[in-house]
Amino acid sequence: MAKILAVDDSTSMRQMVAFTLRGAGHTVVEASDGMEALNAAKGEQGIELVISDINMPNMDGISLVKELRAIPQFKFTPILMLTTESGTDKKQEGKAAGATGWIIKPFNPDQLLATIKKVL
Ligand SMILES: [Mg+2]
């Protein structure tokens, strides 16, 4: 079981993700935008995985990935993008920034958990 940082500006989406993860036994830290996530990442010990939305106020998910990759302890942490963005350009941008994987909303809980298992 892992400690996971779940980032989304949509409260209902965040709750759904957190519910799915907690149901599988994971510990979840929630953040409502990239800025809050970055602060949580710096303040929390032992985050093993980040799942983030892309379109968010204050700091978007791609910028968050870049910021996290610049922190030594997050250099190799798996970061999954959970997004409605399915375009190749966005995916390339995410990959270049250092995102590990891509999950398209609306997500299937079993598929989300299987993807997490694969990258942990
Ligand atoms: Mg959003």
Protein model, in words:
It is a single chain. The chain has one domain (3-119): Rossmann fold (3-Layer(aba) Sandwich). The protein has five helices and five strands. It has helices at residues 11-23, 34-43, 61-69, 88-97, 109-119; strands at residues 3-7, 27-31, 49-52, 79-83, 101-104. Strands 2-1-3-4-5 form a five-stranded parallel β-sheet, with helices on both faces. The chain is globular. The structure holds magnesium ion. The site of magnesium ion (MG) has 6 residues, from loops. The site of magnesium ion has 6 residues, from loops.
Can you summarize this structure?
The chain has 120 residues and is of the alpha/beta class. Helix content is 44%, strand content 19%.
Keywords summarizing the entry:
single chain; 120 residues; alpha/beta; Rossmann fold; 5 strands; 44% helix; 19% strand; globular; binds magnesium ion
Radius of gyration: 13 Å
The overall strand count is 5
List SSEs in N-to-C order: EHEHEHEHEH
Domain unit count: 1
Helix proportion range: 40-55%
User: What is the subunit organization of this protein?
Assistant: single chain
Strand order of the largest sheet: 2-1-3-4-5
**What percent strand?**
15-25%
Distance between the termini: 9 Å
Give the class-level CATH name: Alpha Beta
The CATH architecture designation is: 3-Layer(aba) Sandwich
CATH homologous superfamily caption: Response regulator
Count of alpha and pi helical runs: 5
Overall shape: globular
Q: Which kinds of small molecule does this entry bind, naming each only once?
A: magnesium ion
